[in-house]
């Protein structure tokens, strides 16, 4: 289904906002649009809201599906993502939602055999309304062959080099309970090319909408509880978004591309496109869900 604007979509969403979870996918370029959409359909999302500039297109079979909604949007405009997410939140309180960009792929524990709905049902039963997701950088192993750093068949990840720091309260400076700033991957290894405000790899990408909830710059919410990685009494589920986005940016940016001849280092390993690898590397947490 095609919509000329978010306003038009929200005026007549049909069944798209009647049942969750829904995925909002923001298309920034022509890279891996179809693979991103198919991956998230395979995870079991009820509907995909695909925010995409008119200049880009994707497979007609996908575009014709009743559960894929193409919505025209200038996705690189200032505050486009946060403003759009907040308008969808306001239109559908109570629904579980997710957001990502093209060439990003959601993984959660046991996602090969369990749907996103099953996982979020369990998470809801644990009285959690949001889930921490870690953005794990993907990059091509051979930049001579793949100069834009994107290669689904040659994807690599860092198997170590991730760390967390206490998140200070902006008012008092004290560490906020159950909130951490997470770092690692290409943003850590090439931090001289990444603005300080964009170096974190944590994103609250899965959340349940409610009245008054707002996404803020920096991938956090105006409700402190939504920004926690776990409840106080035991570990909770977390997920990973495996993403070519940083690698793409580093190779497209004239200030960094000529300094990078390969992203591979001694802690690189081929990405297996399976949740078990991410669990084994400690890049997401199954919590009490088995």
TrEMBL record:
Matching Pfam families: Glyco_tranf_2_4
Superkingdom assignment: Bacteria
The protein's name: Glycosyl transferase family 2
Organism: Sediminimonas qiaohouensis
